[in-house]
Design brief:
The protein is an alpha/beta fold. It is built from 16 helices and 14 strands. The protein has three domains: 3-21 and 229-359, Nitrogenase molybdenum iron protein domain (Rossmann fold, 3-Layer(aba) Sandwich), CATH 3.40.50.1980; 26-227, Rossmann fold, CATH 3.40.50.1980; 391-428, no CATH class. The protein has helices spanning 12-16, 26-39, 41-51, 63-72, 75-93, 132-145, 164-173, 183-192, 209-218, 243-254, 269-282, 289-299, 308-318, 351-356, 392-408, 412-419, and strands at 3-6, 100-105, 108-116, 119-123, 149-153, 177-179, 202-204, 223-224, 232-237, 261-266, 301-304, 322-326, 342-345, 382-390. The strands form three sheets. It has a six-stranded parallel beta sheet, with helices on both faces. A five-stranded parallel beta sheet has the order 6-5-4-7-8, with helices on both faces. It has a three-stranded antiparallel beta sheet with strand order 2-3-14. Strand 7, helix 9 (209-218) and strand 8 form a beta-alpha-beta unit. Helix 2 packs across helix 3 (41-51) and helix 15 packs antiparallel against helix 16. The radius of gyration is 26 Å and the shape is globular.
């Protein structure tokens, strides 16, 4: 049964408690990474047979397999995939940054140069649901950024093949290489490379505790997008909302996995009671009822506040991955929302719209990290380099200031480098 809290009656620490992200698999993952580094493809074949229960002849998915999977997809789904991809591309193209040059002082040129990351790796989970949307959301921004290689790893099924729907989505999204590898071993292969897998510069994409821990351990060797926790949704709702709709939206995340969190924050005790009852009615109707049941019972809650303003305050404290502002005038409150991965405004904007179709990215900060981080974007697939040019005359204008600054930090070699081009008596300087 979902827990109901009245804000004034419960400590804030209790309301905000989340599952511990520490996975408890650190040593296992470290061993997997070391094995892949030492043994390459042999370790990958061996682990695939052990963990995925399939013996592979090749780790690489061929272009023929990808084309066959796309061709076999029904026309309706192809059309939907194409439209979803177009929406994602249109949104993310607005994120593209430009180089800039500043030349407003005589003899001085400053600027910023944008360069795409050369090679990126995308992890797509296997599990119980083929996450076509994750392929689009991760690969399309990388393609827009100009990444030269977009490699994808995903575990094979018992037949030794990758889910054909995932392959079709990869073709639509512009993935350039696909490997039949899952788990922490896939992250290790992407980070360090093997005989078959080319090492990448950045790894993105969600996964289970082993994948998340592997991403954490290879960070520094490569960049990563984030350490994603369980899925979350927070619905801000007032007394005018339909409890059937609110419950349905909460369950859209609860069915993800047993650790998912669905939260309702409302100033209406009547709505809270109705949503609680509606959750009990709807859960048994779901094909993934067992998963949703655990999520609702262990990781979800209803929080009742005295005012809607307090409800917004609570949402900002929780900083959810997905935030639905379910009221008649949602734009009146948008400026008050400070911490959320993605914000869904109004009564006709289910979170699933953002998962699949609207265009903004669905790879979002979880576990309160929306207080300081952002959704996946084109920025995640680029590097920014600054550049500086001074003429001899321009350097002479400021060289002594740099010299003085550096000496104040007691870094004499810095200081001398600033003036050696136009005087050689710096060895006599005492200050």
């Amino acid at each position: 049964m979902i827990r109901t809290f009245i804000k004034k009656d419960i400590p804030i620490e209790k309301i905000l408690e989340r599952g511990d992200l520490a996975s408890g698999v650190e040593e296992i993952v470290a061993g997997i990474i070391a094995d892949v580094r030492a043994n390459g493809d042999e370790a990958l074949f061996r682990m695939t047979e052990k963990f995925d229960k399939v013996k592979l002849d090749s780790l690489l998915v061929t272009e023929e397999e990808v084309d066959a999977a796309y061709d076999a997809m029904d026309a309706e789904m192809k059309e939907i995939l194409a439209e979803s991809a177009a929406n994602i591309e249109a949104f993310h193209r607005r994120q593209v940054r430009s180089n800039f040059v500043v030349n407003d002082k005589d003899g001085v040129v400053l600027g910023q140069k944008i360069t795409p990351i050369a090679r990126v790796g995308l992890y797509v989970p296997g599990g119980t649901a083929p996450l076509l949307s994750s392929v689009l959301m991760n690969a399309i921004p990388a393609k827009i950024a100009g990444c030269g290689e977009i490699a994808m790893t995903t575990p094979p099924g018992k037949d030794g093949k990758v889910n054909p729907a995932i392959l079709a989505a990869a073709k639509v999204a512009g993935v350039t290489k696909i490997y039949k590898i899952g788990g922490a071993q896939a992250i290790a292969a992407l980070a360090y490379g093997t005989e078959t897998v080319s090492p990448v510069d950045k790894i993105v994409g969600p996964g289970n505790a082993f994948v998340a821990e592997a991403k954490k351990q290879v960070f520094g060797r490569v960049s990563i997008d984030m350490i994603a926790g369980p899925s979350e949704i927070l619905v801000l709702a007032d007394e005018t909302c339909d409890p059937v709709v609110v419950a349905a939206d909460m369950l859209s995340q609860a069915e993800h996995d047993k650790m998912a969190s669905a939260i309702l924050v409302t100033d209406s005790e009547k709505l809270a009671a109705e949503v609680s009852a509606e959750l009990e009615r709807q859960i048994p109707l779901l094909p993934r009822a067992e998963i949703a049941r655990v999520s609702i019972d262990t990781g979800s809650k209803i929080i009742i506040t005295e005012t809607f303003a307090q409800a917004i305050e609570m949402a900002n404290e929780i900083a959810p991955e997905h935030l639905e502002v379910m009221c008649d005038n949602p734009f009146d409150y948008l400026s008050q929302i400070k911490n959320a991965g993605s914000i869904f405004l109004g009564k006709n904007c289910p979170e699933a719209l953002g998962d699949y179709f609207a265009g903004p990215n669905h790879v979002l900060p979880t576990s309160g990290t929306a207080k300081f981080s952002s959704p996946l974007s084109v920025d995640d697939f680029i590097k920014k380099s600054s550049f500086i040019y001074y003429t001899e005359e321009a350097l002479q204008q400021v060289g002594e200031k740099v010299n003085t600054f550096a000496r104040r930090e007691q870094l004499d070699a810095h200081a001398r480098s600033a003036v050696v081009r136009f005087r050689r008596d710096f060895w006599d300087d005492e200050n």
